[in-house]
């Protein structure tokens, strides 16, 4: 067995939690540092989350936005990638515990960078998740692909007009970038790709509803762009419902409370949740052992150098960190990664030369702007004071996303997938699996069985 | 709602079961026939099964070999595609019953073409399936992709040499084309793509075993080509074990009985089953209602015109049919489809003109040959009396598979994926989901829980 990198046990040990933008970029920026890097993550891939909605709606394959992290870091010999779900950080003993299929592993660190991201938040209603999956992982995207296309298939076989209407109603909760992009893409999938391929239903009659409790679409992008995006969505046929709060979600639909207090019901088989985020539970774990504070969304209130109180060697970056003025987007994570890796590298150098490291400058975020695609050829973008929409914004979106995708071959593959979808009305990735359906059914059966056996047992004792 | 095609209820009704090579080709060949075509299938896609092993080993995406059947048939207005699992054919009443998510649908037919294919056969040991998935569906391929790559990930984290060895041993049962291709690709994945990306294991030390109860590799291709393929596999590092019969499969490995009666054990976490096929249970359904006979593999012994005794309007084609001299391969299904659609079209025309249709000529199979890839740049091929191997055979394999892939854009995408893998050592589709791992773990937990509760219950009564 070869153990390159695993031999240098006396080197400064950097442990990174997470393989998203924050984690991967921290590892990469430490390429030339004289440290030992261990990146521990729950998935084997680096997910390019901004394009997840394109996996869900059949434009690109999961491989294009989720290459294996270890292959990205293959040639970086001071780095190793370990699969595992980090369940605990022990600040006193400076170790991280991760779990893989029932085995627990304890990994010591000198410096720790926590970039475990955020999951979907259902604001205390976790039972919504079963009926309205989020948009945070490859699993979510493939599950939603199956549900969206499956709804059309079921409608085609149904002769009950009520049931058919329910199956052809799609509700996207949350009008942030992901929600806007999902709503637009479900509508385009129905109107363009699926058009003419059914005989008993007309897929263009699908009813897509984008819903938010807030009074605007894309609130962080400002009123002007929000209205622009909303107008474009409405022109495409998406119904935008604002000031509408979701009070319940079940198998058959959702219940909504409007601003005037009216409670109403939308019957819809397929729901997508993109309304809120909840940071990784590791934030709470830190708060229990230190002076660290977390906000309502579970985000860690970091110090100006992105470390936590009393532990200058423990950093939190990306969606898990709360920093005034830094949005929970890729740019925040990437810049945080750059900043902390610089500190780690400088301090490693100082130790090596026996000098005193330069005092840490506080982290400052440079806002490169933000953008969201609404439909084919149409996006909205904001760069500093500049706000623009339409085709130019869409071209900018296209170029920027291509630049940020990891790997030349991925860029070519994605460009080809986009050519297929944007120049024609086709989509190359509409395959759905039986797996989800089967696994879910089996879990439900077994849970019922276990429950009934537990009842019998109780009755017997 | 638009109902094109659904209005002509007085036309001759052709029902096709299955969306594989047989089913899809039958529908397509009836394009110009004055009949009403309903294709009912269990999956929404047409699967190009010969390339399934490339999905399992991360070369291509599922979208490239499994486009939605209804999009392929979109412009064929006399055809409709219905999702459903056909559970029963009623020969007396001329109807087909299909099930979709708990709903049963009854569809009448005038002519019926059954092309429901074959599943994996475990020769009466269906409990092997859990530990050694087959290679018959997109779900199988994605499950195996997760198991293969997951085994390397677990080995990287394990410090127990025994466990590590078990995790890095891969057993492929069945040395037909699929088995040969899987074994070769797992070896190339380890030796080329994954090489250098781990720090605690050397993936090139993975041990791939191809095992068969028969005395030869690729038996239907003849001794010469079998030996050629075997030599090439062995040169790559695959261990070929012949005359070895599997007697048991469990979570940790397999038990094998050699020709001399020796029973031995191979510890291996990841097993692939490609040893035998079992035709769709619909064959038995037909046998129970008619003079139809089925063979041991459940295949229907059809008449010379591919119909069943007493029912000249019911045809069975493809892997479900037993016809002397016709192998269970794509070509058999495609030629069967061409033949039966011609009969249906001729007889429809005769009815229309009030004439007597020409008597049916018996089906005759034209053997176009067969081929299997062993590794990058290496294949074996047999066309008539001509047998050849190596690079030329591989080029022929490449060209033929590209020609048979459905759709121009799919061909371009697949060619690009192949360029990535064959010209470099990369693979573009190595993403694995958490779904399988999670669902399986949960199923196992619940099954254990249910079993222990059942024990308690027994003890109490």
TrEMBL record, chains A, B:
<dbReference type="GO" id="GO:0050136">
    <property type="term" value="F:NADH dehydrogenase (quinone) (non-electrogenic) activity"/>
</dbReference>
<feature type="transmembrane region" description="Helical">
    <location>
        <begin position="388"/>
        <end position="408"/>
    </location>
</feature>
<keyword id="KW-1133">Transmembrane helix</keyword>
<keyword id="KW-0472">Membrane</keyword>
<dbReference type="InterPro" id="IPR036188">
    <property type="entry name" value="FAD/NAD-bd_sf"/>
</dbReference>
<feature type="domain" description="FAD/NAD(P)-binding">
    <location>
        <begin position="13"/>
        <end position="336"/>
    </location>
</feature>
<dbReference type="InterPro" id="IPR045024">
    <property type="entry name" value="NDH-2"/>
</dbReference>
<keyword id="KW-0997">Cell inner membrane</keyword>
<keyword id="KW-0812">Transmembrane</keyword>
<dbReference type="InterPro" id="IPR023753">
    <property type="entry name" value="FAD/NAD-binding_dom"/>
</dbReference>
<comment type="similarity">
    <text>Belongs to the NADH dehydrogenase family.</text>
</comment>
<keyword id="KW-1003">Cell membrane</keyword>
<keyword id="KW-0560">Oxidoreductase</keyword>
<keyword id="KW-0520">NAD</keyword>
<dbReference type="GO" id="GO:0005886">
    <property type="term" value="C:plasma membrane"/>
</dbReference>
<keyword id="KW-0274">FAD</keyword>
<protein>
    <recommendedName>
        <fullName>NADH:ubiquinone reductase (non-electrogenic)</fullName>
        <ecNumber>1.6.5.9</ecNumber>
    </recommendedName>
</protein>
<dbReference type="Pfam" id="PF07992">
    <property type="entry name" value="Pyr_redox_2"/>
</dbReference>
<keyword id="KW-0285">Flavoprotein</keyword>
């Amino acid at each position: 067995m070869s153990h390159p990198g695993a031999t240098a046990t006396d080197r400064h040990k950097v442990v990174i939690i997470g393989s998203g933008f924050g984690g991967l970029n921290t590892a990469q920026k430490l390429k030339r540092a004289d440290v030992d890097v261990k990146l521990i993550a729950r998935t084997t891939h680096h997910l390019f989350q901004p394009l997840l909605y394109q996996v869900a709606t059949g434009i690109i394959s999961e491989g294009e936005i989720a290459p294996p992290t270890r292959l990205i870091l293959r040639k970086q010999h001071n780095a190793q990638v370990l699969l595992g779900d980090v369940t605990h950080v022990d600040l006193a003993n400076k170790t991280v515990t991760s779990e893989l299929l029932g085995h627990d592993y304890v990994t010591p660190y000198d410096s720790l960078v926590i970039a475990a991201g955020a999951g979907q938040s259902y604001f205390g209603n976790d039972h919504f998740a079963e009926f309205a999956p989020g948009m945070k992982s490859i699993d979510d995207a493939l599950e939603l692909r199956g549900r969206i296309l499956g709804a059309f298939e079921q409608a085609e076989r149904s002769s009950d007009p009520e049931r058919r209407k329910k199956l052809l109603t799609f509700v996207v909760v949350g009008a942030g970038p992901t929600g806007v992009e999902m709503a637009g893409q479900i509508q385009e999938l129905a109107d363009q790709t699926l058009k003419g391929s059914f005989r008993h239903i007309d897929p263009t009659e699908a009813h897509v509803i984008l819903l938010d409790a807030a009074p605007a679409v894309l609130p962080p992008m400002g009123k002007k762009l929000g209205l622009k995006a909303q107008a474009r969505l409405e022109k495409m046929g998406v119904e935008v419902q604002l000031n509408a709060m979701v009070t319940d979600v079940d198998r058959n639909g959702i219940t909504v409370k409007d601003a005037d207090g009216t409670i109403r019901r939308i019957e819809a088989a397929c729901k997508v949740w993109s309304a809120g985020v909840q940071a990784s539970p590791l934030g709470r774990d830190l708060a229990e052992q230190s002076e660290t504070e977390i906000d309502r969304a579970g985000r860690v209130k970091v110090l100006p150098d992105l470390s936590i109180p009393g532990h200058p060697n423990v950093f939190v970056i990306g969606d898990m960190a709360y920093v005034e003025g830094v949005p929970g987007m890729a740019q925040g994570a990437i810049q945080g990664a750059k900043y902390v890796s610089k500190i780690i590298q400088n301090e490693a150098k100082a130790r090596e030369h026996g000098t005193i490291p330069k005092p840490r400058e506080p982290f400052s975020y440079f806002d490169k702007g933000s953008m969201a695609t609404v439909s084919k050829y149409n996006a909205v973008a904001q760069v500093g004071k500049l706000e623009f929409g339409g085709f130019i914004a869409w071209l900018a979106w296209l170029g920027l996303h291509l630049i940020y995708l990891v790997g030349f071959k991925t860029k070519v593959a994605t460009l080809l997938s986009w050519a297929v979808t944007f120049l024609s009305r086709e989509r190359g990735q509409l395959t759905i699996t039986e797996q989800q359906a089967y696994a879910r059914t089996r879990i439900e059966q077994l849970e019922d069985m276990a429950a009934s056996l537990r009842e019998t047992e109780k009755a017997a004792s």
